[in-house]
Amino acid sequence: MSKKSFSTKTPRRYALTLIGLMIAALLAACGDATVTTTSSSATTAATTSSSNTIGATNGATTATGNTTAAATNPANSQLIIGTLVELANLNPLTTLADHFPEHAPQTLLFDGLTQFLPDSTIGPRLASSWEISKDGKEYTFKLNPKATWWDGQPVTADDVKFTYDSLIDANTGSSNEGAEAVVSTTVIDAQTVKITLSQSDPTFLSRGCSRGIVPQHILKGQDLNKTDFGRKPVGSGPYKLVSWQQGSSYVLEANTNYFLGAPNIGKVIIKILPNQNVLLTQLRSGEINYAPVTPRDLKTIESIPGSKVLENPTPRFYDIAPNHQNFFLQDVKVRQAILFAIDRQGIVDKVLLGHGVVIDSNATPASWAYNSEAPKHPYDPAKAKQLLTEAGFTTGSDGILVKDGKPFKISFLVNTYDTALIQALTVAQQNLKDIGIDLTVSPVDAAVFGAKRKAKDFDGLSRAWNPVYDPDQYAALVKTGNFYGYSNPEADRLAAATLNTTDQAARKKLYADLQVVLDNDVAKLWLYSENELHAFNVNLNGPKTHPVNIFWNLREWQFQK
Q1: pTM, whole model, 2 decimals?
Q2: Phi/psi of residue 541, nearest 5 degrees
Q3: Range(s) for CATH 3.90.76.10 in the chain?
Q4: Regarding the domain delimited by 317-529, which CATH topology (the fold level of the hierarchy) does it fall under?
Q5: What pLDDT, in 10s, does the model give residues 43-59?
Q6: Most exposed among 36, 152, 339, 551, judged by the fewest C-beta atoms under 10 Å?
Q7: Across 144-207, where does the E strand assignment appear?
């Protein structure tokens, strides 16, 4: 079966970068969240009454359905979220919800068997418990007998089987991401289901089992490539879709019969906005009361009475993949020198306005696999020059380093839409010039970027990576045969070993060892990680940090009474 990319209105790379444009970073030495409140007690008092006014500002997005939760709790009538991305459809079979907050609608409408918790452990959702066979190939799930679809039908093992059978069927147009190893799904009884894998996959509980389950009684017999289920879904999640006005908004109402407890907020309106300026304007006016923002928006947010900001650490990071076949970059001393020469903390300070953290490995401090003891490469131009001298470079008459008669000139590719990364590379360009390396920053469109990556036609290629649930999504890219030419048998061994055990402690140790190998080799030129910044009304209680999904506990959010 072939693996398919998710279907959204926006290309996946762009969606990921939009998130990058909406985020800020964690505190320099820890992964704790910072909440900044920009209101005094007087301002809070002044805005308490306006929270209901904000909730009543519907405009063209007024829902037509009943909102029973709002009727019983008017103070928590509705939350209005601003977003810049609209999904092509809400069907979890074809649209993979692994980028947040853009995928808020889908994650609120559908439940998976499991859920990824803030501490990076796996918790129950539709499944109340599960067992894993000794060989790691069989997962047996017990479903929560209280779980129902919005139409009142129970969620059963038949629904789980239908979902995974569809995910692995190449003819359905589904994305099997996270379920690549699934071979079969067997119904044991109405509340028990067994999923068999072709090989042990320790990431299955996080990546594969967080996929939204769909109702067999609605979709059976339909052509999944043509069904309108993606626009008129029936889910089991804490919210129901009332309406979707394309290009304008989604309107959701609380599922008061939700098996884990009815949400506090009766209605959620997700407004689709054209750009960040409009988003900020609507935050200021009170037309929305929650939105993802960028570091450069903070001054504006600070001027909005009754607002606060939550910084949310994530596993996402930016790096440069050096072509290990390049005449200059094939030398580990050269790669080390480049890392020492780039003022990455300066990039964090200037580009991210201090809301970031320098990284030296393929796991960020927000990842459960992060190794804080991995080798570091602090800004040290003198050390960089020393390494380049040891590598056989001399300085030419124009100030550019030369080796074997070749001037040290290289180019790093970057996507044109990735403005923050382009700014970061511009800082690196000057840093490298200071030690005699002539770097050209080459922004190209996504099509050219992808083609050059596939052809390995680059000196360096810079982009963001988002190993959403598990580092294995990135570890695969360090194995021999990767697109940038890095190869180390020990890295291959460790990367493979991480997938051969379901023991999380053992995997953490393997990933820690892998990070040391990669850092010593400077397999990549790691740059920085940045966090999501979320601005919302000071009267909104409940948002908490989460490495993947800021809306993981939206059911518990509520406005102060």
Answers
A1: 0.78
A2: -105, 145
A3: 111-225
A4: Dipeptide-binding Protein; domain 3 (3.10.105)
A5: 222 222 333 322 223 32
A6: 152
A7: 182-189, 192-197
